[in-house]
Amino acid sequence: xxxxxxxxxxxxxxxxxxxxxxxxxxxxxxxxxxxxxxxxxxxxxxxxxxxxxxxxxxxxxxxxxxxxxxxxxxxxxxxxxxxxxxxxxxxxxxxxxxxxxxxxxxxxxxxxxxxxxxxxxxxxxxxxxxxxxxxxxxxxxxxxxxxxxxxxxxxxxxxxxxxxxxxxxxxxxxxxxxxxxxxxxxxxxxxxxxxxxxxxxxxxxxxxxxxxxxxxxxxxxxxxxxxxxxxxxxxxxxxxxxxxxxxxxxxxxxxxxxxxxxxxxxxxxxxxxxxxxxxxxxxxxxxxxxxxxxxxxxxx
Length: 300
What we know:
alpha+beta
């Protein structure tokens, strides 16, 4: 990859707030205000926002994390679009740079999250091999993925789109979104669609079969956002893409091993040649001086 290709690849990895909103608007056929409102709600969720970092694309530095002040400006700019339905005119940093162009996200972080939510972004550039990117898994999900049981309260929160293990109490609006899922899960438990264990005073602590929750969601067309550990591809194209990607990795490793082995052979050859030269030189000096190498001392 040359200098221009390298710069283009890094620039394409940065998605400005303006470009992101325009892309969502075009891809989804919605208004700019609806795109901003939807994006604001998604990145304001505990799960997604923990996995996203506002970034800046700075000449000479590339993509860097935005400081607190700039992150606040980016959020303010997004809310201006939510409220006004348009980009704010003249909304700029002290140095005159446009926040909507200066601040944004990494494509590898924001695009997979949006696609997991059903937003298929058309016309976006793909950096690297044309393979499906690995889904971005928020940190709070990682501990839940291998669990055999998930509590009723956790499952209801997850289905409502929230991280279930936040330290802050649920707001009224959040509880109103969680409540229908809680009722639906209880109904599934009562009708033996989901196996549930025993609980004490708080039914939200009732353990439920993780596999049953996933099967129940699949049965009724609900999205269970926790990915399966190492899932197999669901389509032939995905399987082919993964095979190609893994073969490229293997080929690269084999090439690196071959280059390493060749370097070892070269170094070994040079070392042996140097050793032979040193031994010949030493033997010549011993012969001329009368030193006895076997005894470690010379004699006259």
